[in-house]
Amino acid sequence: MKMTQRTISGVAAGCLMIAALAGCSSGGNSSSTTGAPTSAAATNTNKISILIGSSGQAETDAVTAAASAWSATSGIPTEVIAATDLNQEAAQGFASGQPADLLYVSTDNLAGWAANGSLEAYGDKLTNKADFYPALKDAFTVNGQFYAAPKDFSTLALVINDDMWSAAGLTAADYPKTWADLETVAGKLTTTDHVGLAFGAELQRVGVFLAQAGGGIVTAGKATANSGANVDALTYVKKLITEGYAGFASDLGAGWGGEAFGKGMAAMVIEGNWITGAMQNDYASVHYTAVELPAGKQKGTLQYTNAWGLSADGDNKDNAIKLVEYLTSTAQQTAFAKAFGVMPSVKSAGDAYKTDSPAMAAFLAGADYAQNLPSMPGVAATITDFNSTLGTLKAADPKALLDTFQTNLQAAISA
Q: Do 168 and 294 have their domain in common?
């Protein structure tokens, strides 16, 4: 399944030029740079290694250039390594006692790596810790400890085919604000050639309806998968599918929602801001608009994020933290957004982002009310199991599906 975690397609190739950086790597799997010390603060000049799970050459080049720029002023050498399999390479580093100093950490891996002592909780040492969106900080907080700085993030929004919208006699005034609105426009958009709305058959997409209903699968550390709010949400989704107004991307013959939308199988899709790269690269002739998802009992969306993890066994942790502060600064976050399509994780970069990328405003607006999927050990596997049953929703009892999910989820949390 494409894009179930924050894996964003790079939308621009080439090298990011930052500040006074004179040049940058052409972007192989690794790049190192050593700058002459220019600061008395650089008392530990051990090289800082940075392990990333790159979305493509644009991201690799951007991170390499940023690290090079920091090295040039700090005097601390850096090495950026684009992992082939980040989880495996990170685990091998932790096991050997020689891990990368900094590495990308997903919400799925955070709890396990924190529990076994592989990561150091450094978030509260950051001078810019108050600048991160609160929900992103929550995503990387374990047992009250802010472990890692969110490096960027993505949310889900409603992406609309402008031509199909106009052909159905709809205008901007008809952009859906409520579930009732969504059902109405999905019906008007549905034809013999395409459905009104598509989304992936997975909690990572359908979960927006749970959030909009006021639900969620874990509340205060307890499984709440079969709550009344979640049953209402899944019942609504089933209604859309049964009416023929909505369909799972896989049932439409697409690998993910972006493909269904790009190929004209659906007039609307629920997807993340990474869809812009796919549309630019693969479906450039499709005109589209992204709007905020409609509300049920409340506004709701999901967000996906990675963080800069700090290895507990690193030998240059103080300077690594300074590097993280640089990588998450307002200017650098803005540069990353331009380079490979992510959204800044710091509030101070929000205005610049909206100015530079006005078409992405709906995605950024979701940061104010987005939910994180839970990241406790074992939960990811339970979600995968639930996803395998979602495809049967049209013929299934929503409560029965959620009851099974509840049992398995509670068992995973209690293990």
A: yes
Identify whether residues 255 and 359 lie together within a single domain: no
Whether 145 and 190 share a structural domain: no
Q: How far apart are CA 131 and CA 64, in angstroms?
A: 24
Q: pTM for this structure?
A: 0.80
Residue 125 C-beta-side C-alpha neighbours within 13 Å: 15
Give the whole-angstrom CA distance, residue 288 versus residue 284.
10
User: Using CA of residue 281, residue 162, residue 367, residue 257, what is the dihedral sign?
Assistant: negative
DSSP assignment of 159-227: EEEHHHHHHTT--GGGS--BHHHHHHHHHHH--SS-EEEEE-SSHHHHHHHHHHTT--SEETTEE-TT-
- Residue 262 — φ and ψ, nearest 5°? -65, -35
Residue 129 neighbours by CB under 8 Å, 6+ apart = 123, 137, 146, 149
Cβ-based neighbours of 181, under 8 Å, separated by 6 or more: 174, 294
Please tell me the distance from the alpha carbon of residue 293 to that of residue 302, in angstroms, as a whole number. 10
How far is CA 248 from each of CA 2, 99, 153, 176, 387, rounded to the nearest angstrom?
13, 41, 24, 20, 12
The secondary structure of residue 345, as a DSSP letter, is: S
pLDDT tens, position by position, 25-53: 333 333 333 333 334 345 678 899 999 99
Q: Which domain holds residue 348?
A: 30-154+304-371
What tokens appear for 8 in the block? 């964003």
